[in-house]
Amino acid sequence: MQTRPLWFDSARRALAVACAGAMLCSLTACSMPRLAGRAEAERTMSPCEQALTLVNDHDWAGDGSPMMVRFVAGQSVPLTWIDVATYCPGRFGEGVLRDAQTKAQLSSLAERLGGVAPTVTPARLDGVTSAVAGTDVLDAMAVAEDRAGFALEVLAARGQTDGATLTLSDMHKTAGQQLVSLADGSWGAGSGKSGESGDAGSGSGSSSGSGTSSDDGDNGSTAASGSGNGTDNAGTHADPRKKVYDISQLLANPTTIADKASGQTVPTAAAIEMDCARAEIKAVTDADAQFDDTTLSILAALAAKHAYTAIQLGYPATDAALFE
């Protein structure tokens, strides 16, 4: 029987390996080339994802964390909820109200631990000289501020409503004028008559009316100081504020009132503050216009301060009350 030499089998195996290698190379050449940085980009979280990760941090949100651990971990959470309102589509209202709720929780922890409760700057737009937002949004927010300012002014004069002070009223009116100026593009053109309602019967003022540190990132450009609550308007934009509003329900219920959103009975001044916050949230969420991130953050911080003031004045900080 004729046998094949050993070199023949070796050559055949080598040829088979070479053919397989050639086929593999041809298949590789037809595959999709790797895009530089694609894998890295897929591993990078968006600003919204980063914010949601931080607010759900186990030390803060997890069950069973010691009070001190929660208090320390929670210091940055309110500002992060403003980031949620800014960067997460459809979650503006949630971010605003969670910011206020978190501040209330931190305040409660501070009281129990002997720590320092969160402080906020006045709910105004001092130093903000421009805004990328629709005029209708700024107008609606200005009306909400002006309505709250008028209601608190009248109730403060009557002296029956806890938390209703002229200090708080003036802060709302100032914010309303600032919003009108932003809509008109005439920042600083108002008459600057801050506190024109006087100081009779004003009491000590709301706790939200002062504070030395801000955790809401609400300052934009600092080219101008805040305008007053006067009625002058140098531009062509029509001032939407009515100055006088129907507050018959508030006058009939000067101490407590049924809150439409939550269905609960709440302190009247707290209801005014929360109504203002909800009106500002609605103005943003109903808008068709586009916002830039800075403007959205500023508007979120303004509404959140009103919501937090409402909680300080007795509005329930529970999910059932805050989230309809």
Automatic annotation (TrEMBL):
It comes from the Bacteria. The keyword Signal applies. Residues 1-31 form the signal peptide. Residues 186-240 are annotated as: Disordered. Residues 209-226 have a biased composition (Low complexity). Keywords: Signal. Residues 187-208 have a biased composition (Gly residues). The keyword Repressor does not apply. This is Lipoprotein.
